[in-house]
UniProtKB/TrEMBL annotation:
InterPro entries: Biotin_Carboxyl_Carrier/Decarb, Biotin_lipoyl, Single_hybrid_motif. This is Acetyl-CoA carboxylase biotin carboxyl carrier protein. Pfam families: Biotin_lipoyl. The keyword Glycosyltransferase does not apply. SUPFAM superfamilies: Single hybrid motif (SSF51230). Residues 1-70 form the Lipoyl-binding domain. It comes from Bacillus chungangensis. Keywords: Biotin.
Length: 70
């Protein structure tokens, strides 16, 4: 299992994947908003989304797990 973590603190602007989706390395999975900038977060490896641990509009801290892949 692999976790996709936030690279910075901010709000979850958009979640681009759902539980069960197949993702490829480099694919954007979440877009964060911080200081009025949109920051895409990409998967570092291929996998299937096991769980989405955040909700759109929620605030997250740097290093917090956003998505679990299997």
């Amino acid at each position: 299992m692999t976790n996709i973590n936030a690279s910075m603190a901010g709000s979850v602007w958009k979640i681009l994947v759902s539980k069960g989706d197949k993702v490829n390395a480099g694919q954007d999975v979440v877009i964060l908003e911080s200081m009025k900038m949109e920051i895409p977060i990409a998967a570092e490896q291929d996998g299937v989304v096991k769980d989405v641990l955040v909700q759109e509009g929620g605030f997250i801290n740097e290093g917090e797990t956003l998505i679990e892949l299997e």
